[in-house]
Design goal:
heterodimer, A: 406 residues, 8 helices, globular, B: alpha/beta, 6-stranded mixed beta sheet, 29% strand
Chain lengths: 406, 248
């Protein structure tokens, strides 16, 4: 049965609030977006929504050794399996709860669907003037064959507080699962927030992820999206700067092969003056992999003295790999500095010969050059364990035996 | 060690080398001189294995093996080294990481384990001292933003680390000021043993004051038209290439 039919049945049998019913009806009215929708022009959901998913999840416990395989081994871990919160740490200054909410400020289909029907997620609140020095890992496991999961998450970062997260969504069923994740982050005055996403999922896994960051004055946020695998990935990353002197940073790597697909949609809304944004996305596509990048920067009329930078660089390492890249700048203020650049290219033949003449085999030379291409992003990762993981995932994906640590 | 016989090569249908013969023995230093466009850089690129050139005829034998059958990396593993006329910039990879990787790959091919980080660093330190290279240099990106002289010095640093049997120095003197030239030449001389050989490719006699050749060859229009000892270089400097080319 197609997903939309299944969702209809599921909603009928569920005890929904009036608000949830309205949200679900709004979703049903517009349905899933098609490629006629400008935001989905290069990303077809046809196959994704035609699949017969399982909406009644097993909610089973998972083996702790499996957790170890996908964890960075950090002290603080929040773990979900099949929409069930199975463990969370006790950290001073931090409140962690299970969560669900049907507040929805968006009319986007997946946001409506998530708000109407999600049952699970986290709510984290950092007290003011609190520095959480150990990063917190968040692991979402799917353990149900062809499972469809929705998580609704919220993070509140108190005034002058500082916190870092690493999120990983992992399928353990090796089946065609789909996750619709919706996360809202509220950064209070002078806070500092970092969120890292490791997306290295199985070949048939699919993900629709939406992360909305709302920043107050003097706050800094950084979102790193590290994609090393997955059947289908759509990341929506939105920043709303609601105070002056905000900084929004986003970095991304997409390293995809075979039939893998990833779409990064980012949007920075500069609503107040004297703010900054920095964006650096690097894409590397092998075999038949396909990538999409859409980076929108909006500078509102009275948002003077904005400094916005965007770059999207892509390497196509096969004849059949493709990338659709679309920078979008909308500037309504007259005293701003905005720059963007987009490149699509191949590895430099002269550099390859240079390396080979030094004894580095062709495959390894290509891997070193690919690493060099991605290194600006990898080396900017602030959590050492994560940086090493990213290096290792890159080396592993390029199927070489190299030690690039020095 | 190196035996080039009747080497003819072309690029995009244009013949560049028209029958080069050259024999280099262990312990020798050869200089190849010649005017622009005579095929000097083509010859060095073909020895190193650049695939843009088509070898039409002839052979290159290196220590009993047909070099033309080998991939560039295999030639490097066997001990061939080319110091590039225009070294390539590789942003994103540090000098130390690059050298560590090339050394590890060469050792792997020879069936050796990689050097321990301690031995590697000690080895680097010694070679840097030899070439008067400052420490901060190792963490800079490979050739990125290097001056011409720094790039050439980096080439000889790699040569010192890889310890090749046959080194071809393609226009290593271009872009070097006189002090840097002396340092680089001094490094090359110190790396010289009875078991390795050096081929110096240059326009000018200047470098040969510091790296003294046993043999000097003049390459003109794709052929070696004259060979002699180091006196030939002085004669060329004095009389110019016209003196040779007029005869053809």
């Amino acid at each position: 049965m197609e997903l939309i039919e299944k969702l209809k049945l599921y909603a009928q049998n569920k005890d929904l609030s009036e608000n949830q019913k309205n949200l679900f009806n709004s979703f049903m009215k517009q349905g899933f977006p098609t490629t006629k929708n400008e935001e989905w022009k290069y990303t077809s959901l046809k196959k994704i929504i035609a699949f017969d998913y399982c909406l009644n999840l097993k909610n089973s416990e998972i083996d702790s050794s499996l957790i170890k395989n996908y964890s960075l081994g950090l002290k603080n871990k929040i773990i979900f399996s099949d929409e069930k919160l199975i463990s969370f740490p006790n950290v001073t200054g931090l409140k962690i709860n299970g969560f669900s909410s049907s507040d929805c400020n968006s009319d986007e289909a997946f946001a409506l669907l998530n708000s109407a029907l999600s049952n699970s997620g986290f709510n984290i609140s950092v007290e003011k003037n609190t520095v959480i020095s150990d990063p917190i890992e968040i692991l979402f496991f799917n353990n149900t064959k062809n499972g469809f999961c929705q998580y609704r998450n919220k993070i509140f970062v108190g005034e002058s507080s500082k916190v870092k997260f690493i999120e990983r969504i992992q399928d353990l069923s090796n089946s065609s699962n789909l996750v619709n994740n919706y996360t809202e982050i509220f950064c209070e005055k002078n806070s500092s927030f970092e969120y890292n996403k490791i997306q290295n999922n199985t070949e048939h896994s699919k993900l629709i992820d939406c992360l909305n960051v709302f920043q107050k004055q003097d706050s800094t946020s950084e979102i790193n999206t590290l994609i090393f695998g997955g059947g289908f990935i759509r990341n929506n990353l939105n920043f709303e700067q609601n105070g002056s002197n905000c900084e929004s940073n986003m970095n991304g790597i997409s390293l995809l092969n075979r039939e893998q697909f990833a779409d990064n949609h980012t949007f920075v809304d500069h609503k107040k003056p004297h703010c900054r944004s920095n964006e650096m996305y690097k894409g590397i596509y092998l075999d038949n992999a396909k990538g999409v990048f859409n980076g929108k920067i909006m500078v509102r009329k009275d948002s003077q003295k904005i400094d916005a930078f965007q770059s999207n660089n892509n390497l196509l390492l096969s004849k059949y790999a493709t990338i659709d890249s679309k920078p979008q700048l909308e500037i309504y203020a007259d005293d701003v500095k905005c720059s963007h650049g987009c490149t699509i290219g191949q590895l430099d033949e002269d550099a390859l010969f240079y390396m080979r003449s030094r004894g580095i085999k062709e495959k390894e030379a290509k891997a070193v050059l690919t690493y060099a291409f991605a290194s600006e992003v990898i080396e900017s990762i602030s959590i050492p364990e994560l940086r090493i993981l990213a290096q290792n995932l890159l080396i592993k994906k390029l199927d070489v035996d190299l030690d690039l640590s020095l | 060690m190196l035996d080039i016989k009747n080497l003819k090569a072309s690029i995009d249908g244009t013949q560049i080398l028209k029958g080069v013969n050259l024999s280099v023995k262990a312990g020798e230093v050869h200089a190849i001189m010649g005017p622009n466009g005579s095929g000097k850089s083509t010859l060095s690129a073909i020895i190193a294995g650049k695939e843009d050139y088509e070898v039409d005829e002839g052979s290159i034998n290196f220590q009993g093996e047909d070099l033309l059958d080998l991939a560039p990396e295999e030639r490097a593993h066997k001990g061939v080294f080319l110091s590039f006329q225009y070294p390539i910039e590789i942003p994103g990879i540090s000098v130390s990481n690059f050298i560590k990787t090339s050394l590890a790959e060469k050792r792997k091919a020879l069936g050796l384990d990689p050097l321990s980080p301690k031995d590697l660093l000690e080895n680097m330190r010694q070679k840097m001292e030899l070439l008067n290279i400052k420490k901060g240099y190792l963490s800079r990106n490979m050739n990125e933003g290097f001056s011409g002289g720094e790039k050439k010095r980096n080439e000889i640093f790699q040569m010192a680390m890889l310890e090749p049997t046959l080194s071809i120095l393609d226009e290593t003197d271009s872009g070097l000021d006189i002090d840097a030239l002396k340092t680089v030449a001094n490094g090359v001389n110190k790396l010289k043993t009875n078991n390795n050989a050096t081929v110096v490719i240059t326009h000018y006699q200047r470098l040969l004051d510091h790296i003294v050749p046993d043999f000097v060859h003049v390459l003109y229009d794709g052929k070696i038209v004259k060979s002699g000892n180091k006196e030939l270089a002085f004669e060329l400097e004095e009389k110019g290439y016209d003196w040779i080319t007029k005869q053809f």
